[in-house]
Amino acid sequence: SELVYLDCTFEGIADGCAGVWYHEACDYSVKTGRLATQSAAPYKARDGACSYDSVHNGLIAASISGSKAISKGESSVIQALNSGADSVDYGVTNNFYQYKSGVIRD
Q1: What are phi and psi of 72, to 5 degrees?
Q2: What b-and-e string marks burial along 16-32, b requiring 16 or more CB atoms within 10 Å of the CB?
Q3: HEC string of 50-104?
Q4: Residues 9 and 47: beta-carbon distance below 8 Å
Q5: pLDDT tens, position by position, 41-75
Q6: Whole-angstrom Cα distance, residue 38 to residue 44?
Q7: β-sheet bridge partners, residue 36
Q8: Which one-letter DSSP state was computed for residue 12?
Q9: Residue 41 CB burial class (10 angstroms; 0-12, 13-18, ≥19)
Q10: Given CA atoms 77, 80, 86, 92 in this order, what sign does their dihedral have?
Q11: CB 1 within 8 A of CB 38
């Protein structure tokens, strides 16, 4: 669940609602062996305490063993997909926060 990553990745350090790097979220699940499901810990759009030990662990049929960056380009993505699941993060500019509709040209 996004809520667990936001609350637990920055616990005691910063406001998780300001964002989280995917590798820090991944490191949390590697360290704890846990990740609550979306239904067990739905997103609330506010910072909270990291207290999810009693919440259903969604990592019962899967595991997260780590993360690594890949090179830009289609062939790198295809190669990464052949070795397991991928996730993508991206940085945005302030123009993104003003987005209403259409194509962003920034």
Answers
A1: -70, 150
A2: beeebeebebbebbeeb
A3: CCCCCCCECCCCCCCCCCCCCCCCHHHHHHHHHHCCCCCCCCCCHHHHCCCCCCC
A4: no
A5: 998 877 788 888 899 998 887 778 888 888 888 89
A6: 11
A7: 57
A8: T
A9: buried
A10: negative
A11: yes
State the pTM of this model.
Answer: 0.65
**Measured distance CA(50)–CA(60) in Å, rounded:** 20
Q: Which of 97, 90, 6 is nearest to 43 (CA)?
A: 6
The position carrying tokens 């609602």 is: 17
Q: Concatenated DSSP letters for 14-62?
A: S-GGG---HHHHHHHHHHHS--B-TTTS---SS------TTSPBSTTS-
